[in-house]
């Protein structure tokens, strides 16, 4: 089950299409869908979590808490819409594409992909691009 929660004045356009897409992302990695909660928030909310839970005093676009058991993907993915908007402007990409990149990023972590080394980051970016392209395919 995929759910979307909002801590700010923001709402995904077409939640059903995003839900189908995330399910497809999970399925494309030969995993099963458990309970995945997306929580959309602002920089202040996510910064507080980053300090409290990860001891990182920095801004970030996404923090994920992984509850995956075996191949059943589950977790809470917190996304700063404010940071995503700024990153989209910095990278000169569409906000919706950058948002989907971050949404896929959390799921890919649950599937076992890492991003701490340059090699891992390149694979993660490639996987993000692959998963974003799934969204544009008509269901």
TrEMBL record:
<keyword id="KW-0690">Ribosome biogenesis</keyword>
<feature type="binding site">
    <location>
        <position position="109"/>
    </location>
    <ligand>
        <name>Zn(2+)</name>
    </ligand>
</feature>
<dbReference type="InterPro" id="IPR002036">
    <property type="entry name" value="YbeY"/>
</dbReference>
<keyword id="KW-0378">Hydrolase</keyword>
<dbReference type="GO" id="GO:0005737">
    <property type="term" value="C:cytoplasm"/>
</dbReference>
<dbReference type="GO" id="GO:0008270">
    <property type="term" value="F:zinc ion binding"/>
</dbReference>
<keyword id="KW-0255">Endonuclease</keyword>
<protein>
    <recommendedName>
        <fullName>Endoribonuclease YbeY</fullName>
        <ecNumber>3.1.-.-</ecNumber>
    </recommendedName>
</protein>
<keyword id="KW-0862">Zinc</keyword>
<keyword id="KW-0479">Metal-binding</keyword>
<dbReference type="GO" id="GO:0004521">
    <property type="term" value="F:RNA endonuclease activity"/>
</dbReference>
<dbReference type="GO" id="GO:0006364">
    <property type="term" value="P:rRNA processing"/>
</dbReference>
<dbReference type="InterPro" id="IPR023091">
    <property type="entry name" value="MetalPrtase_cat_dom_sf_prd"/>
</dbReference>
<comment type="function">
    <text>Single strand-specific metallo-endoribonuclease involved in late-stage 70S ribosome quality control and in maturation of the 3' terminus of the 16S rRNA.</text>
</comment>
<keyword id="KW-0540">Nuclease</keyword>
<keyword id="KW-0963">Cytoplasm</keyword>
<keyword id="KW-0698">rRNA processing</keyword>
<feature type="binding site">
    <location>
        <position position="105"/>
    </location>
    <ligand>
        <name>Zn(2+)</name>
    </ligand>
</feature>
<feature type="binding site">
    <location>
        <position position="115"/>
    </location>
    <ligand>
        <name>Zn(2+)</name>
    </ligand>
</feature>
<dbReference type="GO" id="GO:0004222">
    <property type="term" value="F:metalloendopeptidase activity"/>
</dbReference>
<dbReference type="Pfam" id="PF02130">
    <property type="entry name" value="YbeY"/>
</dbReference>
<comment type="similarity">
    <text>Belongs to the endoribonuclease YbeY family.</text>
</comment>
């Amino acid at each position: 089950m995929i759910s979307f929660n909002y801590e700010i004045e923001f709402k995904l356009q077409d939640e059903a299409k995003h839900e189908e897409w995330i399910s497809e992302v999970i399925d494309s990695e030969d995993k099963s869908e458990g309970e995945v909660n997306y929580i959309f928030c602002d920089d202040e909310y996510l910064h507080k979590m980053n300090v409290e839970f990860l001891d990182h005093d920095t801004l970030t676009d996404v923090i994920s808490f992984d509850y995956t058991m075996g191949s059943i993907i589950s977790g809470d993915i917190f996304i700063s819409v404010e940071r995503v908007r700024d990153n989209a402007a910095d990278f000169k990409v569409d906000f919706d594409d950058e948002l989907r990149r971050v949404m896929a990023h959390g799921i890919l972590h649950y599937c076992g992909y890492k991003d701490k080394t340059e090699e891992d980051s390149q694979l993660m970016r490639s996987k993000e691009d692959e998963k974003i392209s799934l969204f544009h395919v008509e269901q």
